[in-house]
Design brief:
289 residues, Rossmann fold, Tumour Suppressor Smad4, ten-stranded mixed beta sheet, six-stranded antiparallel beta sheet
C-alpha cells in the first residue's frame, strides 16, 4: 500500500493542514504528504508520484477544488480515491447522501480497500482536456461563480447569494449553439450547465436527479426570464425546488458541444472561454466506499 495525502494549506482557513497532520499521526501505515503553496506545485508532485506506478490510494483533504486537482491525475487509473471534506464547497464529498467522514473512518477505508467506480465528465477546450466530478457551468452561474471567488471574506451559501445579486443587473440572455448527441440546436438561455453530480457551490442542487453511476450526464437549461424572475428562481437551487419551473429544461445526454460568448467553470474551477465539448466517461474513478 502506498498512500498519498494531498492537502491545500489554506483550505478551510487552515483546517486542511491541521487534518493532514492528524491523519498522518493516526494512520498505522506510511502516508506521503503532498502540501504546497500553489496548485501547480501540488499537481506536479502528485503526477510524479503516480507515474512511479506504485500508488494504491490518494486522499484529498480540502474542498471541491482539491478534488478537481486530484481527478486530473487519477482518472481512469487503478487508484482508490478518498476525500476528507475540509473546504468551503464540499459537494463532491457529500454527494449520494455521504456525510463528512472522520479521520478514523478514512483510515478504516484504506485498510479495507473497498471502492466502487463512478462516472466522470471530460471537457475538451482550446487549452486541452479536464475531468470534472460534479457540475460544469456556463452562462449566469459561471459568471456568479467567478464573482463569488472574488468575495474572499464571505463564506458558504451567502457568498453565492451576494454574487448572484451583483451579477444579475448587468446580465442578458446568451445565444448558444449546441450539438447534443449529434443533434444541432440553437437557443437563447440564461445558463446551460452539465451535471455529473447533483450539486455545486456548497450545496446548490442545480440538478437533483444527476447520478454519478448511470453512464449519463444531465443538462439543465434555464431559458430567458426577466431579471426579477431569475432572482426568484436561482436561489431555489439550494433546495432543488426550481426543477418544475416552466422555463427550465432538463436533458440526459452522453455528449454535448457548446458554443457561446461566455465562460465555463467545472467543480468551481475556471476552465476556459467557450467553445467546449463535454462527454461522460463511465466508471472513470474508483471512489472509496
Amino acid at each position: 500500500m502506498k498512500v498519498l495525502a494531498v492537502a491545500n494549506p489554506v483550505s478551510g482557513k487552515g483546517k486542511a493542514k491541521i487534518l493532514l497532520t492528524k491523519f498522518i499521526n493516526l494512520a498505522p501505515f506510511e502516508v506521503i504528504p503532498l502540501i504546497h503553496p500553489t496548485a501547480a506545485q501540488t499537481s506536479e508532485q502528485l503526477r510524479t508520484e503516480i507515474d512511479k506506478g506504485d500508488v494504491t490510494d490518494v486522499v484529498a483533504i480540502g474542498g471541491d477544488g482539491m478534488v478537481h486537482l486530484c481527478l486530473q491525475e487519477i482518472a481512469e487509473k487503478k487508484i482508490d480515491f478518498h476525500v476528507i471534506a475540509a473546504g468551503t464547497g464540499n459537494d463532491f464529498a457529500h454527494t449520494g447522501g455521504r456525510k463528512s467522514k472522520s479521520l478514523s473512518a478514512v483510515v478504516s477505508q484504506l485498510s479495507e480497500g473497498s471502492s466502487s467506480r463512478i462516472d466522470l465528465g471530460l471537457v475538451t477546450y482550446a487549452g486541452g482536456k479536464r475531468w470534472f466530478g460534479q457540475v460544469l457551468s456556463t452562462g449566469f452561474d459561471a459568471i456568479v461563480n467567478k464573482r463569488a471567488n472574488g468575495l474572499r471574506l464571505i463564506k458558504g451559501q451567502m457568498k453565492y447569494n451576494i454574487a448572484t445579486i451583483l451579477v444579475l443587473f448587468r446580465f442578458k440572455p446568451i445565444r448558444y449553439q449546441l450539438n447534443i448527441d449529434g443533434v444541432p440546436r440553437t437557443l437563447d438561455a440564461m445558463l446551460i450547465s452539465v451535471a455529473n453530480g447533483p450539486s455545486y457551490g456548497g450545496g446548490m442542487l442545480i440538478c437533483p436527479m444527476a447520478d454519478r453511476t448511470d453512464g449519463l450526464l444531465d443538462v439543465i437549461i434555464i431559458k430567458p426570464v426577466s431579471k426579477f424572475e431569475l432572482l426568484k428562481v436561482f436561489p431555489k437551487v439550494f433546495s432543488g425546488s426550481h426543477v418544475n419551473h416552466p422555463q427550465i429544461e432538463f436533458l440526459r445526454i452522453r455528449s454535448i458541444s457548446i458554443q457561446a460568448q461566455t465562460i465555463a467553470y467545472a467543480d468551481g474551477e475556471y476552465i476556459s472561454q467557450l467553445p467546449i465539448s463535454i462527454s461522460v466517461v463511465p466508471k472513470a474513478l474508483a471512489l472509496a466506499n
